[in-house]
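Query structure, 181 tokens:
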């Protein structure tokens, strides 16, 4: 390797033993150092802002929003019908499938954080019951304090039948192809 070449990593910087060119190279290196000292604080500030904003909790509303309470005053038991309720509150989140004709307006307010699990902050359920003529008979409000946490079972339902290995499944299909006749 010639003496006039300096190897840095995988790059080869050709430095001739010429004082003018060496000064130019040193000036370039100084400029790069000056630029990096200006950019480094900006990059650090950007990184700190990025990390801290990712920890901010953002609220998320879904379903029925309590803002419909303004229209709740206009719903009268024994007077208001289904069409009026739907006009005032919108389509229900859910309806009853059996028993009394009941509409459920379910609202949920959650807080999301970038790296953490979403957390339920508030829950509001409005239950509107109708008689057979479609007239409101009862209005019930339930909030987060009425909510119950239900434990999810980890049990598995056993399935009956053959337990085949992957190889048995692959080889078992040989000869079963009928060609679409």
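Result returned for the query:
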């Amino acid at each position: 390797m010639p003496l006039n070449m300096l190897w840095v990593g995988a790059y080869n910087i050709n430095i001739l033993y010429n004082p003018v060119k060496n000064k130019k190279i040193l000036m370039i290196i100084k400029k790069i150092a000056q630029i990096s000292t200006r950019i480094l604080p900006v990059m650090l500030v950007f990184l700190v802002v990025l990390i801290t904003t990712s920890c901010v909790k953002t609220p998320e509303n879904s379903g029925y929003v309590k803002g419909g309470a303004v229209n709740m005053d206009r719903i009268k038991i024994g007077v208001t019908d289904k069409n009026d309720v739907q006009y005032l509150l919108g389509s229900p989140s859910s309806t009853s499938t059996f028993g009394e004709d009941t509409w459920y307006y379910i609202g949920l307010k959650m807080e999301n954080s970038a790296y953490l699990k979403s957390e339920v902050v508030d829950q509001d359920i409005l239950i509107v019951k109708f008689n057979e003529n479609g007239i409101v008979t009862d209005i019930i409000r339930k909030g987060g304090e009425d909510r119950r946490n239900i434990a999810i079972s980890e049990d598995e339902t056993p399935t009956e039948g053959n337990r085949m290995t992957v190889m048995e499944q692959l080889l078992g299909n040989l000869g079963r192809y009928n060609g679409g006749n």
